[in-house]
Design brief:
By secondary structure, the chain is of the alpha+beta class. It has two domains: 2-112 and 261-354, no CATH class; 116-215, Pdz3 Domain (Roll). It has nine helices and ten strands. β1 (32-48) and β2 (51-66) form a beta hairpin. The N and C termini lie close together (10 Å).
């Protein structure tokens, strides 16, 4: 079942990405030769006007083939003969549509929650005494935080949404102090030496000593919460890519399609009901499609970002790089990407055999 769901999710993500290239190319007057979902042997194909529309056997990608992408072409409607700004829009459009899909999935996810969480402090651990005054057990209150503070960062770690608290507080230690940036009264305020600890807990140390505000759902709160969660996901993905590129990530952390299918299968299997399954799949869909969008914009040959880099070079030099030279670079980039894909798939299979994934 997880394989079928994964194929559907990948199909939607790829279709949306390629549609971004396709529609912008059409609107820019660039000739589109073929719009294909999937790779490999053709299952279905229909030609409408000058464009072939194909469905292919392998659900591992897709493409929007335009006239004269990798070579000089006399056709005035070829990609290379289009104005530079039009080419740049076409190249960015695929990733942009991935971001749109991710944001829509997050909006649906947020709309299905009972209430919308925020990063605003609603209260601190404590109890009301006989005299009517509150006795606080929250050291964060004692060391400077207050009700209605909107948390912006803790020791430089950005907090975009309530989901960031999981990542931040798993590293918080109760015997250390932190620099916290909040928004208080409409202004940013930096508070030094904040300690997070619930002193009423005696059997274990507890760093989370405050509660956050939840808002009733309406178009404004759903859109705001969706924007915050979108920023969280983008931040997490960007950091992961930075660690991968810098070599800080462990090779075991590199995962490919097999790992994604296993994760989707696990999310569906562990869901207690249909609603939870839909929420989990919406979360994964948004995370995957935002990941695809960001990854495609990296200045790596063979990716949209690599082609965009050559457009920037052309903008600076005021003349394009020779198509054959650019083609060699993209070919090398594609070889590198296929190597990474093979390595990631090998990693996934090793995890699967050793029990690293659960299905």
């Amino acid at each position: 079942m997880g394989v079928i769901i994964a194929i559907i999710i990948f199909g939607i993500i790829v279709t949306v990405h390629e549609f971004g290239h396709f529609i912008c190319a059409k609107l820019s007057g660039i000739k589109v030769l073929e719009f294909s979902i999937g790779m490999g042997p053709k299952l279905l194909q229909k030609k409408k006007g000058e464009t072939k529309y194909s469905l292919r056997a392998l659900p591992i990608g897709g493409y929007c083939a335009m006239e004269g992408e990798d070579s000089t072409n006399s056709d005035p409607r070829s990609f290379r003969n289009a104005k530079l700004w039009k080419r740049m829009i076409v190249l960015v459009a695929g990733a942009a549509m991935n971001f749109v899909l991710g944001f829509v999935a997050i909006i649906i996810f947020m709309s299905m929650l009972n209430k919308v969480p925020s990063t605003v402090i609603n209260g601190f651990v404590g109890e009301r005494g006989d005299d009517g005054n509150t006795i606080y057990y929250a050291r964060s209150y004692e060391t400077g935080l207050r009700h209605e503070d909107k948390l912006i960062s803790i020791d430089g770690e950005r907090i975009y949404s309530a989901w960031d608290f999981n990542n931040v507080f798993e590293k918080i230690e109760t015997d250390k102090s932190y620099t916290v940036v909040v928004k208080r009264g409409g202004k940013r305020k930096t508070i030094e030496n904040v300690v997070f600890q619930d002193t009423s807990v005696t059997d274990k140390e507890e760093a989370v000593d405050f509660g956050i505000r939840y808002y009733n759902k309406n178009p404004l709160t759903v859109m705001r919460g969706s924007g915050e969660l979108f920023m969280t996901m983008s931040h997490v993905i960007t950091n992961s890519l930075k660690q991968l590129i810098s070599g800080k990530a462990k090779k075991e952390d590199v995962s490919g399609p097999v790992g994604v299918v296993s994760t989707i299968n696990e999310a569906a299997a562990e869901s207690e009901n249909v609603r939870d399954a839909i929420l989990n799949l919406l979360w994964l869909t948004s995370l995957i499609t935002i990941n695809v969008g960001i990854f495609n914009l990296l200045p790596i040959p063979g990716l949209d970002g690599g082609r965009l880099l050559f457009c920037v070079i052309e903008l600076v030099r005021r003349k394009p790089v020779k198509p054959e030279h650019e083609g060699y670079v993209h070919l090398a980039g594609m070889a590198l990407l296929f190597g990474i894909m093979i390595f990631a798939t090998y990693n996934d299979i090793v995890k699967l055999v050793s029990g690293g994934f659960h299905g």
